[in-house]
Amino acid sequence: MADQRVQALLDFLKASPTAFHAVFEAERTLAAAGFEHLTEGERWALQPGGRYCVSRNGSALIAFVMPGKAIRGFQLIASHTDSPTFKIKENAEVSVRGHYVQLDTEGYGGGIYASWFDRPLSVAGRVLARTAEGLRTRLLCLDRDCCVIPNVAIHMNREVNKGYAYQAQIDLPPLWGTGEAAGSFRRMIAEAAGVEEKDIAASDLYLYNRTPGTVWGVEDAFVSAGRLDDLECVFTSVAALAEAAEASAQTGHVSVCALFDNEEVGSTSRQGARSTLLRDVLLRIREAAGLDEQDWQAALSTSLMLSADNAHAVHPNHPEYADPVNCVWMNEGVVIKHNANQKYTTDALSAAAFREVCRQAGVQTQDFFNRSDMPGGSTLGNLSSAQLSVPAVDIGLAQLAMHSAWETAGARDVDSMIRAMRAFYAADIHIGDGLLTVTGGQA
């Protein structure tokens, strides 16, 4: 089963070059598990035990399972669909003295730029195209090696191995073709989208690392691929909700899987964790379930969110970058992330609840703190808390080279995370006044 899960993860990563594709693949998985697609622009008729999902912008998704009894709370898992990359500007082609064609790009998120050089890249995203019915979204993926960001030879940049400050407009545009390729980019995009070039009204297009993910190492211990941060948590949370749906419907809580976009650039979009997306969906669930204001506040007070975003494993070449005690390792269990300044939302209450879920499910956990003199970044939990005040715990899987075009994680951890998340959805967690109970977490 563990090997099958890793292969399924690799298949998901290959099919998800952008956030739009990741949401499309998640919806396919959920549809196969009996989830009904809703739209924000229509009224919802939610039924006890029903399974539903709704997307926003095509790059964010909320899926949920209604309980078969009165709602006592919400058990939520949040992750994000975007990864650091390069966005292709609207007028993409740049001529280099009439002999080469480059693509005009700008960085998206905080990527490790050096990792993008000298590797085959491709283009994926969406276009809005004119049709007889109006402007329609078309997903596209060129799915071929079509551009490279070439390094400057060491003979011309002899300081490159001593560190180099990249100039984004000069060093990072990819080479697309020879001078004869002028005008080909928009034509290829139209062909891939199945529309006429003249009908494209606008686009959101990105570079992606097309190299297929792989399992490697002695005893196949590691998995490497692009976009593990955070599509590994997207994949595991969707798989867990699909597998736990039946058991979840027997509980007194609504099981929710939230996939947000734009985490890598601050989550400030209408589809990001800072938006009202999650609250909007939960309020519609509240109305369908007939909860009054006091019922709603009581349900929130006993709810729990898992903010799922990967964590920094101890680096084999630089173990000094890790905390001396609270450090984490690949293939040694699900990570619980802590930060005194609330970059992570974990506290004793939320950590205890999640640890108890994992203990009952037989899943190993480990604790992560940054080195005290090396502050880390924030993620989803503390941002979404501004819109929805529920206890939260930050979790993830240990990985190396976060924000590289090619990241590495533990192959055995994929199964551990799915089992932990599945148990979380199946459990009844009650947070009372000084008392915490966890029962039934054996999906």
The number of domains is 2
Q: What are the low-pLDDT stretches, counting only 5+ consecutive residues below 50?
A: none
Count the beta strands.
22
- Helix residue percentage: 25-40%
CATH superfamily of the largest domain: Zn peptidases
CATH fold assignment of the largest domain: Aminopeptidase
Mean pLDDT across every amino acid position: 94
Shape: globular
Distance between the termini: 15 Å
Query: For the largest beta sheet, what order do the strands appear in spatially?
Result: 1-2-3-13-4-14-18-16-17
Main pleated sheet:
9 strands, mixed
Query: For the record, what CATH class of the largest domain applies?
Result: Alpha Beta
CATH architecture grouping of the largest domain: 3-Layer(aba) Sandwich
Number of helices: 10
How big is the Rg? Answer: 22 Å
Main structural class: alpha/beta
Percentage of residues in DSSP E strands: 25-35%
Can you give a write-up of this model?
With 443 residues, the protein is of the alpha/beta class. The protein folds into 2 domains: 2-83 and 226-439, Zn peptidases (Aminopeptidase, 3-Layer(aba) Sandwich); 85-209, Aminopeptidase i, Domain 2. 26% of the residues lie in helices and 29% in strands. It has helices at 2-15, 19-32, 168-171, 184-193, 228-248, 277-289, 293-301, 348-361, 381-384, 413-426, and strands at residues 36-38, 51-56, 60-65, 73-80, 85-96, 100-108, 121-131, 134-141, 175-178, 200-209, 214-216, 222-225, 253-260, 304-308, 311-312, 334-337, 365-368, 392-396, 398-400, 407-410, 428-431, 436-439. The strands form 4 sheets. It has a 9-stranded mixed sheet with strand order 1-2-3-13-4-14-18-16-17, with helices on both faces. Strands 8-7-10-5-6-9 form a 6-stranded antiparallel sheet. A hairpin with a 6-residue loop joins strand 19 and strand 20 (407-410). Helix 2 (19-32) runs parallel beside helix 5, helix 5 (228-248) packs parallel to helix 10 (413-426) and helix 8 crosses helix 10 (413-426). The longest helix is centred in the middle third of the chain and has 21 residues, at 228-248. The radius of gyration is 22 Å and the shape is globular.
